[in-house]
């Protein structure tokens, strides 16, 4: 059974991603301090309000060899700070996408292994033509009308594992809802630059994956991760300050990325536990 090894691979990948995130946080924080300090040190004769760099993009026509140069706007101090923050956010977004894809790889492989071992957790997919196969590759990427990885695998676990059902969606800690949110955000990050151009459309997609789940509070929960930017909604994964209690006094922050990484790891732990329990039962019957 390969679930333990695959979980360790997942854990290593997400741990590394978390380290990248922490280092990135420090880099962008220091960069903002440098931008502000540099601006303060500009001589008085420089028009500080309008001062800043601009950038050039050059390209050449393949047919005429004519070179075209495009000059960007001048990035004033506030523009530079915004650019630095957006760069930080873009880094966070892609790190979340990497962590999500590590989970997707994990569940695809360990679920396929359930099929190889004849586990009760494995559900025969549509148009499957590998009866009796012991090749892992034959059990990868299962297809079912209206669904694919990772929802096929999660649905099977939900249907066939009591342990998974009991612990997937507890009050105050609903892994199912947060995971769907991460998956939909990953799609926005990869295909739409991290922007949501239709909130209601996004909510319909989320609701489609949460059949049987109370939707009370989900809409406001999703909205809390989105901020208006450039006539759209931007997936916001940045830290935000603690507002109450001792944390507020010392200037503490909520770490959004850490919370989402933990969701992926703990959801994978639940998958691993469910498979291990099923395997123990399978051994008793043989």
Automatic annotation (TrEMBL):
The organism's place on the tree of life at top rank: Bacteria
UniProt-recorded name of the protein: Uncharacterized protein
Source organism of the structure: Pseudomonas taiwanensis
């Amino acid at each position: 059974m390969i679930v333990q090894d695959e979980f360790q691979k997942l854990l290593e990948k997400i741990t590394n991603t978390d380290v990248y995130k922490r280092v990135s946080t420090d880099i962008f924080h220091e960069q903002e301090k440098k931008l502000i300090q540099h601006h303060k040190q500009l001589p008085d004769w420089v028009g500080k309000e309008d001062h800043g760099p601009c950038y050039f993009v050059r390209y050449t026509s393949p047919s005429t060899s004519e070179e075209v140069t495009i000059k960007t706007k001048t990035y004033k101090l506030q523009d530079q700070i915004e650019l630095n923050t957006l760069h930080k956010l873009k880094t966070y977004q892609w790190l979340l996408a990497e962590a999500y894809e590590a989970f997707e790889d994990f569940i695809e492989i360990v679920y396929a292994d359930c099929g190889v071992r004849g586990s009760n957790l494995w559900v025969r997919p549509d148009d499957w033509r590998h009866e009796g196969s012991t090749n892992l590759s034959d059990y990868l990427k299962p297809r079912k009308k209206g669904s694919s990885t990772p929802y096929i695998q999660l649905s099977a676990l939900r249907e066939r594992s009591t342990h998974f059902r009991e612990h997937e969606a507890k009050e105050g800690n609903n892994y199912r809802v947060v995971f769907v949110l991460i998956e939909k955000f990953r799609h926005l990050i990869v295909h739409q630059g991290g922007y949501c151009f239709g909130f209601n459309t996004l909510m319909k997609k989320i609701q489609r994956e949460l059949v049987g789940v109370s939707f009370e509070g989900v809409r406001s929960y999703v909205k809390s991760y989105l901020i208006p930017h450039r006539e759209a909604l931007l997936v916001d994964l940045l830290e935000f300050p603690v507002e109450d209690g001792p944390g507020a006094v010392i200037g503490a922050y909520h770490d959004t990325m850490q919370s989402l990484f933990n969701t992926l790891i703990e959801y994978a732990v639940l998958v691993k536990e469910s498979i291990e329990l099923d395997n123990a039962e399978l051994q008793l019957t043989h």
